[in-house]
Amino acid sequence: MLHQRFVPTPPDLQPWLEAAVVVDCPAELAQSQFPATVSSMLVVRLAGQVMCQGVQVPEAAWMSASTCATVYAHQGRVHAVGLVLRPEAAAALFAGACGTVNAIRPLSELAGPRWASVERGVRAAADDDARLDVLCQFIRATAAPPSDCEVQRLQALALLTAACRADGGTGQHMGLSQRQFERRFVAHWGMAPKQFQVIARLNSTLWHALANAPGSQGAELAVDQGYYDQSHMGRDVRRLAGQPLQALVQDTRTSLSTHWPLQIGAQTQPKPLHQPPQPTQPTQLVAPARRR
Questions:
Q1: Burial (0-12, 13-18, 19+ Cβ within 10 Å), 251
Q2: pTM of the model
Q3: Are 171 and 180 a contacting pair, CB within 8 Å?
Q4: Is the peptide bond before 261 cis (omega within 30 degrees of 0)?
Q5: Across-strand partners of 20?
Q6: φ, ψ for residue 52, nearest 5 deg
Q7: How far apart are the two ends of the chain, measured CA to CA in Å?
Q8: How many other CB atoms sit within 10 Å of the CB of residue 220?
Q9: Which of 32, 190, 21 is nearest to 102 (CA)?
Q10: Record: fold of 3-143
Q11: What is the distance between the alpha carbons of residues 117 and 259, in angstroms, rounded to a whole number?
Q12: Which of 65, 145, 53 is nearest to 100 (CA)?
């Protein structure tokens, strides 16, 4: 039986993480299927092999935001621990994550030489909870002063807030033309504001559909999530998650589901698109400073 466990984020890391996750997939589960997502993941695999489009996934990897559904093929039992990063967190923590989508990067490449001792700590830990503690401490150490990570995070939140405004995210209130704003947004996230909004809405729709009672995937959900109608919602779900919404929901009710990432996502309950996270203090939009 598939064992997957959602672990709530420690309070002090909630600005950076959506969740911590433990996954133990039996050998019978040949795949994991992820929808397009605006979040990214930091993952350490402890057992098994995983392939994506014929390329082996590193044992310690950062999986970026994605603009399409992604299938990971398993070889043997796969046991892993990981952290789900909030959309605004990845580029603030790792300069190399800026502007990156549809990518898998070794954490040794993204985090640099300091990652080696972190990975040793993860693998030496007594159990999965202890392994997650090591990863959480890594995030704390990365974001702690004198780093500029918090400044970078707040600047990213300012971009998200502008993109979700009723004016269409033109950025006029930030002193930018629409074209300038879109260039700045693409440079940070690797996708245009509109594409980010569409994928963020998909994520919220999927999580709410799974978290609510069966049969609640109709017109009411579509209206609540900001779609024109149920058909509009259905097209987005098929295009960005690979299957109709009802089929996805039904599959996640089974004991051995390739869509287990949706089961995890339903427990994170990210904010709907029309309620973007707000900066905790006024922020100037400036070019990101280079970090080591």
A1: middle
A2: 0.87
A3: yes
A4: no
A5: 7, 83
A6: -130, 115
A7: 42
A8: 11
A9: 190
A10: Jelly Rolls (2.60.120)
A11: 32
A12: 65
pLDDT band at residue 287 using 50, 70 and 90 as cut-offs: very low
Helical pair 193-211 and 178-189, crossing angle rounded to 10 deg = 60
Structure tokens at 92: 């603030």
3-state secondary structure of 14: coil
**Omega before 214 cis (within 30°)?**
no
Tracing tokens 């890391």 back to the chain, one arrives at 13
Residue 47 has which token pair?
């057992």
The string of pLDDT tens digits covering residues 175-214 is 788 888 999 999 999 999 999 999 999 999 998 888 776 6
- The 3-state DSSP class for residue 246 equals helix
C-alpha Rg value of the chain to the nearest Å: 19
Q: Of the ranges 44-53, 66-75, 159-168, 272-281, which one carries the lowest mean pLDDT score?
A: 272-281
CA distance 256 to 253: 9
Q: Is 216 left (phi over 0), alpha (psi -120 to 50) or beta?
A: alpha
- Cα angle vertex 284, ends 283, 288, to 5°? 105
